[in-house]
Structure formats: structure tokens, C-alpha cells
């Protein structure tokens, strides 16, 4: 698969977690693709720079003043509402965001993540990630399983500065889906065509396999 196919596979799987009436914040990168796979008026997308009711926008309808927190053009759904950034962060910190979907640089086997700083490099910065980890009711990570040089991004311990002391709830990659339960990583699902051997080979972190095969046997 090429890069776009991998990202869309991950985003499509993350979209399956959005069920029922919910307010969802999408982080930069793969998370922004999740909206493409949602056709449910009960899912309301939120951006921390001050819009509830984010929607896709066609090139001919782009408003340069209407962007998300990653400065990408967005549209407004029917009934969308605007507010200032302070109110938006008040929504996050007040636990009014049901689900946050974040990209990461690294995740560890207890569910801690690093997604805001690389020592010695300038990157965009933390944005609302710290607040979302504290305030969102559920946090889902979407990421490629390995870095560009083939190293695992799911580690025993993060080597970059962590974003928060709160663990995420779920990690979705192009190889597998993990849940964090009682401080341990559980592999609950393999992506199509992926073997457990491949997941183990490309994952530095320790994890428990909860994946079953025909006959109810665990992998």
C-alpha cells in the first residue's frame, strides 16, 4: 500500500469507533481523514480554534478565514457554531468533548504518548493535545506502526517528551488495533492480511494478544 492508502485504512478503522451522539476533536495528520468516513448527523466535529460543526469543503468553496487548528481549510455543517479559543478550551477542559483522535510520534506499552516535541528539532508544537488528553472522555491514537526508518513507534517507553500523564484508550495502526486496559497494551484486532508474527516483529512494546482465530483460540 502507498502512504495515502495506509493513512485512509487507519482513519476508516478509527471512524468505526464513533458511535451515537458525540462531540469529536480531530488532531493533525491522519485524524483529519476520519471525517471522510463518517455519515452520521449525530457526530459533531470540534476544533480548538473555535468551531463546532466542522465539515469537508470543496476547493471552489474554500474560505481562507475558515480553517481548523492545523490551518487547513474546513467547511461548516448546518447548525455549526463559532466561539473564541478560550471557550473552546473550556469545552475541552470541562469534559464536553467525548472523543479525541490524535496523531503521535511515539506511544508506550502503558498508553502514554509523545506527540509534541522532538529534542533538537522545531515542530508545530503541542496545540491542544495536552488539554485533550486531560479533558476528553476517550482518546484514540492513529499512527503508522513504524517510523520512516522502519523503527517501531510503539515502544516499551517513550524516548521523546510525553504529552500527558494520562494514558490513551486505543491505538490504531495499519497493522493492528490495541486497547489500553489497566495499564497494559492489548492487541484486540489485526488489520486485513496482517499476521500476529508481523505485529510482534514490528512492535517493541510488550502486549497481550486478545485476538482470536477460528475455534476461539488466542493468537
From TrEMBL:
What are the protein's UniProt keywords?
Transferase
What family does this belong to?
Answer: Belongs to the 3-oxoacid CoA-transferase subunit B family.
Signal peptide, first to last residue:
none
Pfam families, sorted:
CoA_trans
Give the GO molecular function terms: CoA-transferase activity
Protein name (database record):
Succinyl-CoA--3-ketoacid-CoA transferase
